[in-house]
Amino acid sequence: MSAVEQLRAIVGQRHVLVGEEAAPYLTDWRRTRTGRALAVVRPANTAETAAVVKFCADNVVPIVPQGGNTGQVAGATPDDSARAIVLHTGRMNRIRDIDVVNDTMVVEAGCVLQEVQAAARAAGRLFPLSLGAEGSCFIGGNLATNAGGTQVLSYGNARELVLGLEVVLPNGEIWDGLRHLRKDNTGFSLRDLFVGSEGTLGVITAAVLRLHPLPRAEHTALLALDSIDSATQVFERARSRFHSALTAFEIMSDACLALVAETFPQLRSPIKPGPEASARCYVLLEVAEHDGADDMGDVFAEFCAHAWDDGLLQDAVIATSTAQQTELWTLRESITLALASAGYCVKHDISLPISAIPGFVRQNSDQLASKFPEARLMVFGHLGDGNLHYNVLLPDSADPARESLETSIQRCVHDHVVGLGGSISAEQGIGGKRTSDLEKYKSPVELRLMRDIKRALDPMGIMNPGKLFT
Ligand code: FAD
Ligand code: ZN
Fold this sequence. Notes:
Blueprint lengths: L2 H9 L4 E2 L21 E3 L4 H14 L3 E4 L18 E4 L6 E5 L4 E5 L4 H10 L2 E2 L12 H6 L7 H4 L6 E7 L5 E4 L12 H5 L8 E8 L1 E2 L3 E9 L2 H15 L3 E8 H10 L17 E9 L7 H13 L5 E4 L3 H12 L1 H6 L3 E3 L2 E3 L5 H15 L4 E7 L4 E8 L7 H18 L15 H7 L2 H14 L13
Helix pairs in contact: 1-2, 12-13
The structure holds flavin-adenine dinucleotide (FAD) and zinc ion.
Flavin-adenine dinucleotide binds next to strand 3, helix 4, strand 10 and helix 11.
């Protein structure tokens, strides 16, 4: 029997895709890479996943795990050797259990994030992980990339939202680590090894997620400011005023909102960004109000009024309905989509100490402007987490020199970030696109430790080869 026939014997004829049917799974979200695969395999459950992985281990067939394929670093795209299978987790999409007393839910890896949020909400609980791709990304992909998003300030990254995991190991064995515990000091945290491992150590098949109380209300405002310096000052005040109730502090440059307005003219916006706007950047600020707390509406309005009186704001719009809140968030979440159709984008997902951000942006944008005059900066992100999506937009052209231009721009940004003690990947991971940067900037000791762990768990190197490690 051929490999494809053997895989069909495990998961069923219809769930091993080849040829045309496999094509949609072979290109990354940003359309920067297209690979080839032996087949796309869609197991229905953990046992089938284990049998597929065992078959691959026995036959040294590489495995590329894939969730919603919304990753920004081509981590779920196979190379062009056609040797690997893409293991798509979409059929493992059951919510297995919700325990409202323990504030946990057990979900399978292929659940769409939005469905996980909705199931928690239906049980009167909040699963706070929240990102622009939430209608398409899977919880397994979120955990494999340790996704961040817009609520990290208050609730942490994906890592902080998971208590236990079920993982199929590279030899096909199942590790049942579905613990519902907040305290467990019985040796190494194996769970943490798999969170953020980007499919290089095993296939996550299910997880125990940590839930939170649903806020009674959320207060949202869009603030216009003259600089990132003012934005960091407002952030400091907001954190002191609201503590952990401050759930989002997102920044968007004027250029980003102008691009959104140009790309999606149907979106309603209370502000007019663009050449005539005096603001340089905008902040989307959100505060949650929980049962037992005082009514925060007035406090929130007062906070904005004080910032205005102190000359930190140029304008402020406080949402007065859920529809208006959604409109403000839609503007923020449309930036990635607008950039996808706006030319060639050299993306950076950097983190820095928050205090270093204004100086970094000033100096780095001056450097980029003098070295690469054709480039346009599109900066947005999670200022409250010290995480910027620092994007450099180039005119769309098939210029063969573009690749070396991209490398030079990335060097200019990443050297500067690392020089200030920052990270070259805050939340999106390394995937297949940032491996050489990882090699360049991570310390030799850290790289050796990571390689030792990889070798110990996956001695044949079949899990997502070419990702994370060169
Ligand atoms: P995929 O893209 O399918 O895979 C990502 C990586 O995880 C790959 O290496 C893959 O091999 C591995 N993987 C997937 N599933 C498994 C599994 N079950 N077991 C083991 N490995 C697996 N990211 C953020 O962190 N914050 C944001 O704010 C954010 N905003 C975004 C906005 C938009 C509009 C888009 C398109 C993307 C955004 N992203 C963001 C990036 C992306 O959505 C996240 O990285 C997401 O967590 C990826 O989930 P996925 O299911 O699409 O994973
Ligand atoms: Zn982000």
